[in-house]
Structure formats: structure tokens, C-alpha cells
Amino acid sequence: MAGGVDLICLVFMWSLWSAAYNGATNTLKPGESLNSSSLLVSANGKFTMNFRVYELDPNHSYLVIKWNASHNYAWVANRETPILYPFGVLTLDRNYTLKITHRDGDAVVLYSADSETISGDAVATLMDDGNFVLQEVSDDGSVKRDLWQSFDYPGDVLLPGMKLGVNRSNGHNWSLSCWLTEKSAVPGPFTLDWDPDGHELKIKRHGVVYWSSGVFRDGSFENIKQKSIVSKKNEDYFSYTTLDENAVSEWLLTTIGRLKDFDESIDIAKADSCYGYNTDGGCHIWDQPTKCGRSGDVFEQVNGYFNPTDASGSTVSSRSDSNTSLSISDCKDACWADCNCRGFIFLFPNQTGCHYWTGNLKFIADSAGYSSTVVYFLTTKSDGSCKYSHP
Ligand SMILES: *[C@@H]1O[C@H](CO)[C@@H](O)[C@H](O)[C@H]1NC(C)=O
Ligand SMILES: *[C@@H]1O[C@H](CO)[C@@H](O)[C@H](O)[C@H]1NC(C)=O
Ligand SMILES: *[C@@H]1O[C@H](CO)[C@@H](O)[C@H](O)[C@H]1NC(C)=O
Ligand SMILES: *[C@@H]1O[C@H](CO)[C@@H](O)[C@H](O)[C@H]1NC(C)=O
Ligand SMILES: *[C@@H]1O[C@H](CO)[C@@H](O)[C@H](O)[C@H]1NC(C)=O
Ligand SMILES: *[C@@H]1O[C@H](CO)[C@@H](O)[C@H](O)[C@H]1NC(C)=O
Ligand SMILES: *[C@@H]1O[C@H](CO)[C@@H](O)[C@H](O)[C@H]1NC(C)=O
Ligand SMILES: *[C@@H]1O[C@H](CO)[C@@H](O)[C@H](O)[C@H]1NC(C)=O
């Protein structure tokens, strides 16, 4: 009897499950589209693709691929064109153009068959590894070739199986680029690249090398302590897989230049701690502003405010740069180069622009958080304790 109840229970569970997945397929066929109320789910259930409203920018949506175990977006189709919610539609049209149309402005074209002759049919599939692939298929459904794939256009996340480096036969360059700010997916200043000549990974800011992995030897990179991965590389490109294939892993390049593994719990590289005077953890050395004597200085991030140390303080001032292409590392860089700069905050709520403090100032920490402003201020690392004073 108990067995019968179990069976009924199972059938009931199964019908619930299929109701939940009803309409959730992993493919898009010519003439089909995906709008803000539908989604694709990979066959193994691990990856979804749909239009999502980003919590920090509630009026806009991005077409994203997301690993269900992570809160990051593994891939964003329209980084530079946030789309007014809920008007985005992804379509594979009958001419095999894969594009996102929306209410205002031009379509974001991901693939267009203009220059190619497609003899059979084409279908776009969200694969079990998180790759969204447009494939030419023959009448019997067998795959003839890949026409386009999301793995060729990485954003700020590297999933197992994705490549960094260069394809010598067509010149394609695979590279990660961080978000401009935590609130904007627009490509920011840091990139993660594979150097096919030096055979190492590099984090660059506006093209300047901040960090490198060192060469791969005895199963790991000199400056990467993480042991749970196997890197697969040939001369031209790098990719990795996890030792345990059920393990969850994704590498994320953050806005401040840090490379983290899965949901920010492990730091692989900290380019935000590279100031050009230190080589710890793989940091590179570069030219310093000569007169400042910044060696040993670091930026600290604390709630607080600046107080003039000299009441007559005629040199005390603050100034702003309203260029909205500037984000945290640009503010740091400019403050660093100005020998009078003591710290900065963002100018705009979306974390762009810079507001600097210069002159004879002392930073007063407000660790109780009465002042809601997070200030980035310069201090000396010397003995590990900070030089700001508490009121
Ligand atoms: C998405 O498409 C379905 C089916 O055509 C339609 O019923 C639904 O209203 C659409 N949703 C949005 C947000 O446009
Ligand atoms: C993700 O999907 C897999 C496969 O459907 C499932 O086993 C797992 O429990 C899901 N994880 C989360 C956090 O939802
Ligand atoms: C979202 O749009 C509404 C209506 O246009 C507007 O009032 C609101 O300020 C917008 N929110 C943001 C964060 O831009
Ligand atoms: C497909 O291409 C033909 C010829 O260029 C054009 O007339 C037609 O409108 C296109 N169809 C779609 C769905 O874009
Ligand atoms: C490199 O490009 C060629 C030509 O487009 C392609 O056939 C090949 O698969 C690509 N190689 C990799 C590793 O993606
Ligand atoms: C690929 O592009 C990145 C970012 O623009 C650049 O830093 C890197 O040097 C390029 N790699 C190659 C091999 O051309
Ligand atoms: C704004 O900043 C960006 C990035 O540093 C720079 O390329 C651009 O020239 C600046 N624009 C103006 C108007 O200064
Ligand atoms: C950030 O905010 C400024 C000021 O409101 C705006 O001009 C700029 O376009 C915004 N930048 C991004 C990337 O959202």
C-alpha cells in the first residue's frame, strides 16, 4: 500500500516538475523569439537565459545567461545597450539573423547570415556548459557547423571551457573585461588576457599590465594558489576545467580589478592591491609620480570625512571631474598622481565621476557609520595599522 502512495506521490511530483518546466526549452528555432516573460533552460537545468532586470538599475533589462548556483551573470548579450523593461525580444528570424529588438533604438545584432550561405537550417541552443550556440543543421537534425557562440564574446566571467587568447586562423581575440561600475555592464578599464607569447595570464588596466600569473609549472601558475582547477592551454589560448566536474566554478573579473572564483569567495588575483611599487602576488612595477614618495601608501575604504589639520588651511580644497567614463580605478589613479590628493568619493550615484580632496587634511573615520559616505583615502600600509584617527 505504501508503495502505491509513493507512486502516486512520484507521479504528482513529476507533473509539478513538468508544469514548472512547461515551455522552458533550450532551443530557439527560426521564426521563434524569447521575450521578457519566457526563458531558455539548458537540458541539464543548470543554466538559464532570459531578460533580467538588474537590481541596481530597476528600469532596464539585460539578456543574460546565468548559472543557477551563482548570483552573477555568466554572460550579458547587451552590455552597452541596457533595454527598457519589459520591451526586449530576442529573435532568430527566418533569414537566420539572431538579434535583440526593443522599443527605442536599433536592434542589437548578435549574428547575421549576410555573408554566409546556409544550406540546411539553423537552430540556437543553450548548451549544458552555458554556451549559447547558433548551429547550422541538416534535415536529419545533425549539426553541420557552428555559426556563432556566446563563448566567443566573453564579458566579465570565464566559465570552464571558455577560452582566453587568440585564434590565429581568423585573428579573433578572447578577453574578459570588467563592468565599468557595479551598476553598469559597460566594459570597464580592466581586462584579463592570455599572452600567447609569454604564456601567462595578465590583468591590464587601460592596457597597462597590473598583474600577471607567472608561467605554468608543475601543475599551477606561479601566482595562482588555487589548486582545484586544471588549466588546458596550448600556445594560443587558455581555458580551465574543474577537477571535480560537478563542482561549481566561474572566474569573475571585478570592477576594481580583482579576479575571483565562484561567487566572490576565493580571490585568484588582486590587481587592486597593485600600486606599481610592489610585486606581491604577481603585481607589476611601473613608473611612479616622482615627487610624491607614495611607496608604501595604499587606499583604504571607510565611512568618514576629511578635516583640515591646519585651521588657516589655505591649501585645503576639493574638486570634481564629471567625466562619466571614469570609475573607481581612474579616480584612484588620478588621486595617486596628484601629490596633494588625500582621497576621493564618486561624484554620481552610479559610481562614475570623481570628487577629490586635496591639501592639509586628516581623515576622520566614522566606523559607526553615521556618515553614510564611503571615502577612499590614502594611508600608509607600513605596520598593517591604518593612520586615520577615530573621533
Ligand atoms: C511574450 O510573448 C507571449 C506570447 O506571444 C505574450 O503572451 C506575452 O504577453 C509576451 N510578454 C511580454 C512581456 O511582451
Ligand atoms: C541547479 O540546477 C540543478 C539541475 O537542475 C539542480 O540539481 C540544482 O539543485 C540547482 N541548484 C540551485 C542552487 O538551484
Ligand atoms: C524608473 O522610471 C521611473 C518612471 O519613468 C522613474 O520615475 C524612476 O526614477 C526611474 N528609476 C531609475 C532608478 O532610474
Ligand atoms: C529576409 O531577407 C529578405 C531579402 O533580403 C527580406 O526581403 C526579408 O524581409 C527578410 N526577412 C526577415 C524576417 O528579416
Ligand atoms: C578558429 O577560427 C577558425 C576559422 O574561423 C575556426 O574554424 C576554428 O574552429 C577556430 N578555433 C577555435 C579554437 O575556436
Ligand atoms: C586581446 O585584447 C586585449 C584587450 O584589448 C589586449 O589587451 C590583448 O593584448 C589582446 N591579445 C592579443 C593576443 O592580441
Ligand atoms: C573621459 O575619460 C575617458 C577615460 O579615461 C577618456 O578616454 C576621455 O577622453 C575623457 N573624456 C573627456 C571629455 O575628458
Ligand atoms: C551615470 O550617471 C551620470 C549622471 O547621472 C550619467 O550621465 C551617466 O550616463 C551614467 N553612466 C552610466 C554608465 O550609467
Automatic annotation (TrEMBL):
Residues 1-19 form the signal peptide. It comes from the Eukaryota. Residues 25-147 form the Bulb-type lectin domain. SMART domains: B_lectin, PAN_AP. The keyword Disulfide bond applies. Residues 292-381 form the Apple domain. One of its GO terms (molecular function) is protein serine/threonine kinase activity. Keywords: Disulfide bond, Glycoprotein, Kinase, Serine/threonine-protein kinase, Signal, Transferase. Its EC number is 2.7.11.1. PANTHER family: BULB-TYPE LECTIN DOMAIN-CONTAINING PROTEIN, CURCULIN-LIKE (MANNOSE-BINDING) LECTIN FAMILY PROTEIN. This is Putative non-specific serine/threonine protein kinase.
